């Protein structure tokens, strides 16, 4: 839990993912399209992965991954990210972190 | 085979030596006939000719005279022979008819049996593949009750949908208040959300069923993207129908279209990744060894993610509808729903027309 909390307070866009998860991959692609490079933590490759999974569930994520935090605040999973984006609320949140080469 | 009708010309018209030759040829014809249908026509011809003959001959028979003795006996013999052959042919015909009717009877019984079995299977909640309704006799096997339930619900859903479209049409033409119109719009929206709920349930039962779109018509399937329509495609259709839009609305719709497109791209690429993953898992190790169960089991695990994708795609559709209803006025939303519904109806009609349209042979 500590690790997760520490990681989420990192500035910027944080994505908890699993390397085998294709839905997580879709979220990564979306951020890429929006010009954002999130900090990705593949919890299946982390020795404390199980703990992190439990911590994420306790924070309110229905599925542990993908879990998106922006500026330390939990945005949610794919559903929430998509809804936010279609509603026009995602890009304003990402603006400080967008970098278009 | 040659059946010249000249053979059956009444012998009276021919020379005295002709008749015997004639009967001989008939006999040969009967022997060489392998095809029952051809012999039937021969018999009919013989019957007709013989009937004519026997009618006229019967007038002649009771009037023998010394002068016509020689001539009278010859037609008499021939007539007797013809009558005998006629009786024989008729007997054979009756036997064939009997055999045919027996075959029909047994086929009919078999059909009744099959219908009974089908009815029983339906009552038990099992479902025989939609291919049967499409006219193909390929049983796709017994599928789970979740699909049977969905099929029934979807049929009902379509009926309600068509009724609601009628209500929308009436409401838009009538002078009803915005509040009342809003209710009609909300009903329409809820109806779509209901469909997404239904799809979510059946996706858990069999995600491939949802992906294949078997429950939709063929033209609808043509546009299929992860188990349904592409939201951005529907937006394009909608927006064209909604003129005039305010500048603010145009701006918001543009943004919606763009974000929709981006979300679709992300999901599409995720799907590709899933395909690669499943393929790689299945192909792991050596192909051709014979033992492959571990690979198949692992691939099944990966495939579970497909349910998530179908749900995400439907979520995208739902969100798009929601956002549009926020951007549009009540009246515009009503027109939008009607336009959408009618567009889908046209697709369904296209499917029907395509199926029944005679095509030129290749």
Would you kindly provide a written description of the structure presented here, covering whatever features stand out?
- The complex is a heterodimer of chains A (101) and B (362).
- Chain A is an alpha+beta fold and 101 residues long.
- Chain A has a single domain, classed as Glutaredoxin, CATH 3.40.30.
- Chain A is built from five helices and four strands; from the N terminus they run H-E-H-E-H-E-E-H-H.
- In chain A, strands 2-1-3-4 form a four-stranded mixed beta sheet.
- By secondary structure, chain B is mainly α.
- Chain B is built from twelve helices and two strands.
- Chain B has a two-stranded antiparallel ribbon with strand order 1-2.
- In chain B, helix 2 (36-60) packs antiparallel against helix 3, helix 9 packs antiparallel against helix 10 (293-303) and helix 9 (247-283) packs antiparallel against helix 11 (305-327).
- Among the domains of chain B are: 87-127; 145-355, no CATH class.
- Classes of the chains: A alpha+beta (101), B mainly alpha (362).
- At the A-B interface, helix 2 and helix 4 of A face helix 9 and helix 11 of B.
Short structural summary:
Chain A is of the alpha+beta class and 101 residues long. Chain A is built from five helices and four strands. Chain A has a four-stranded mixed sheet.
